[in-house]
Here is the input.
Amino acid sequence: MSSHDTQHAGADGNGVAIRHADPQPASPRSEADRVKIFDTTLRDGEQSPGISLNKQEKLEIAHQLARLGVDVIEAGFPITSPGDFESVQAIAREVEGPVICGLARTSKQDVEAAWQAVKDAERPRIHTFIATSDIHIERKLQTTREDVKGQVHAAVAQAREYCEDVEFSPEDGSRSDVAYMAEVIQIALDEGASTINVPDTVGYTMPGEYRAMFEELYRLVPDLRAATVSVHCHNDLGLAVANSLAGLEAGCRQVECAINGIGERAGNASLEEVVMLVHTREPSLRLWTGIDTTEIARTSRLVSRLTGYQVQPNKAIVGRNAFAHEAGIHQDGVLKERTTYEIMDATTVGLSSNAIVLGKHSGRHALSKALQDMGFELDGAALNTAFKRFKEIADRKKQVTAMDLEALVTDELREEIAGYALEWFEVEDHSQRSPHAKVSVSLPDGGSGVGSFTGDGPIDAVFQAINVATGQSPTLSEFTIGAVTEGQDALGEVSVVVELGGFTGAGQGVSTDIIDAAARAYVRALSVADARAHADDALGLPEAAPAKGAR
Ligand code: KIV
Ligand code: ZN
Here is the structure.
């Protein structure tokens, strides 16, 4: 997208200039001003508590990121688990367009695993990192500055033997001694790294400070001018996007970010905010990205559904209310002239029409065509399952919209989770008696478990009956109900997070029946938490490898 949504400068009745928007850029775009978008949703984003995406889900997100036009997909941290390795490998083999990157610490096995996972990509990248702050070197790594330098030499040299495209990050860069970090960066450059990423790992820095740090690094390491310099900001103080912008102002030209801002603790800089900031303020910033902004809303919905992380209603760009006007005075203004209260057009981020696509008489061919138009390539068994779910929904709902289909197909991807699956349920509810539920759940060993329970409410009764059927007793930590579209016959969408023996699992369910959606979501969350607990037992990682969620 290259068009601008904003307005023209003008004058009020008294001849006073009113600045509605930035003037248009005088000169054409140059490659030097192009900001590369490095998406880390599948690596740093996936480190958020409770998120555990399977290979199929990661592939689906990676394909959507390619449609969005990101420059680099950091697909995972291959050494951490066989599942992560296989997902990165599958993305490298299947997803065309972006550079596919795998993360590695500086150890030989890490770099080797990252290479084995990404080597089949059209354009592979190895991203290696080690901490350079004294607190990390002394307390976490329990080593010395000199040893860290040696590790950087070895890791970047090893990575360069395999791959032309190598990125190096001095972890906790924003809290490192700049002069020392500059020496480490020089080593990485001398060994052939072409991208240097300086993270604000703990979300501590402030825009002025971060900018000054990059200016100092450019002064101390003139060779940085020939490399791509990158920012990677965490949001602990709510400054991740502001700090990323400060880095761009200092000359950096790659931003590491995640869809919906997910990531460790308070998350990473949100991709959609960074992109729309650069897009909306291009005339001032004179920077641009290669992102197709009209794919933003859809990518956000996909990531939210598959991770179970709901987007807060007032979240910039992708929140439900980001383009809603409540105050009468605002509504009035927008009706007269949209730009009185809107600095962006909702259609620019893909919040456009939700045209009705199908009805209950539509056949398999029509469904397949509609899905194809929406970018979903489904055939064989997957199309059959989607068609069966579509028919069930079309029987209950007069009109099946694009948003419904999107929710339904995304929901189907969840079926891939190995573990428990809901077979059937029945609920008796009455205003004078406590509700009673009976459920049947298929178990990981291939058998079925049946459970019943009388609960406080119908959903409580179903959840407790599932506990009886599975023999598990997780704690319910989050439960949210939403609607996919507007209207009384809208599909219900439920999101659940449970905790089981110290492991969290998130799940979502979509159905015209809210109890069905809740039961599906609960069983999925339980399966994820259970799988995480077992994966942790079975990982058998090398001694120094971080446990998932502890990196
Ligand atoms: O936050 C961080 O420092 C990281 C590095 C691995 C780049 O995620
Ligand atoms: Zn990070």
